[in-house]
Design a protein that fits this description.
The chain is an alpha+beta fold. It contains seven helices and 17 strands. Helix 2 packs antiparallel against helix 3.
Length: 334
């Protein structure tokens, strides 16, 4: 047997193992072959230039009731106050909208979400049961690469918001490692363990500007991909989320009223990010306000050289001392 390697945090296209699967599924973001059956070995230490964590992703839904039923079947803990708040591990989704089916102010995510679950068969069974009882198509595709009894990936669509969720089984032992590291109870509060990746389609020709935006204004590590780029969020051995930008001919610069939340890895980088984005005319408010609230808002991505807008995606940038930070103090830099 080959020596065990640490698990890769980056979803990659499945290789020969997908030879029997349809061509469309080959292009989906999925973990490296074998990662769902191997024992959990950890991601290793966070890479330099990683954000600390991804916070809430703010979206919209035309039916909070439908979206609530969908995420319950998916296996997410969720609650409703003024908006539907869905827990996806150390990140979350906030779906704002109307219970009456009227169009929401916010939009669907321009791409797909990629999650790891503790039990993919339970997830598929519950989603199929909801489809049967509601008459709505939730399950768009199921991939069984080696055994038809054991799904390797499931593609779902929230009937309330239209958002696409790609589901994979987490590696053995990952759930316990993640809960231990975050100081959570060992009991199973949610089948969805983590939001591993957000895939965002962007207009062609925008990747160089997006890369410069994150590298220059946030001192972030940006990894090139075959047709885009990726930024990283990492803490400890088990907490990982990536934001992947992929060029697409049909993508638009405007993302509607959606937004993401990113936690800086330390106070010093939070201060530097505010200074740089403020000089670029992006950061909201004064430093005193940002320091007091432990956050500031950047309304869009720009090309740092020209100042021209590249992507209308709101960023809520937070310090690691923000009270909602999902990472414990001992897991990030001082």
């Amino acid at each position: 047997h080959a020596a065990k390697k640490r698990n890769s945090p980056v979803p990659a296209a499945m290789g020969a193992g997908l030879s029997a699967c349809n061509e469309g599924m080959r292009k989906l973001l999925m973990p490296a072959e074998g990662s769902c059956s191997n024992d959990w070995m950890g991601f290793g230490p966070p890479e330099d230039g990683s954000f600390l964590a991804m916070g809430d992703v703010v979206l919209g839904t035309q039916s909070q009731e439908l979206s609530s039923s969908f995420f319950l079947a998916l296996g997410c803990h969720h609650e409703y106050s003024e908006a539907l708040k869905v827990s996806t591990g150390h990140s979350g989704l906030v779906l704002e909208g109307s219970k009456t089916g009227q169009a929401a102010e916010h939009s669907s995510w321009p791409g797909q979400f990629y999650v790891w679950v503790e039990d993919i068969r339970a997830c598929l069974s519950d989603c199929r049961a909801l489809s049967a009882s509601s008459g709505l198509a939730l399950v768009e595709d199921v991939v069984c690469c080696h055994d038809e009894r054991h799904p390797d990936a499931v593609v779902l669509r929230d009937p309330g918001s239209g958002n696409v969720v790609v589901v994979n089984q987490a590696p053995k032992g990952y759930a316990k490692a993640l809960r231990d590291e975050r100081g959570l109870p060992a009991s199973k509060p949610s089948n969805v363990l983590c939001l591993m990746d957000l895939l965002c389609y962007v207009p062609r020709g925008s990747i160089a500007s997006l890369t410069a935006f994150y590298e220059q204004l946030f001192s972030a590590k940006v990894s090139p991909t075959a047709d885009g780029c990726r930024i990283h969020c990492a803490a400890g051995e088990s907490m990982r989320t990536t934001l992947t930008f992929k060029e697409d001919a049909s993508a638009e610069t405007a993302c509607g009223e959606i937004g993401i939340c990113l936690y800086m890895p330390c106070e010093a980088k939070f201060r530097i990010a505010f200074a740089k984005t403020s000089r670029a005319g992006l950061a909201s408010g004064t430093w005193e306000e940002a320091d007091s609230r432990s956050e500031f808002v950047v309304p869009r991505c720009i090309d740092p050289t020209s100042g021209k807008p590249v992507l209308e995606l709101l960023h809520r940038v937070r310090s690691p001392r923000h009270p909602d930070c999902p990472v414990r103090d001992e897991m990030h830099a001082a």
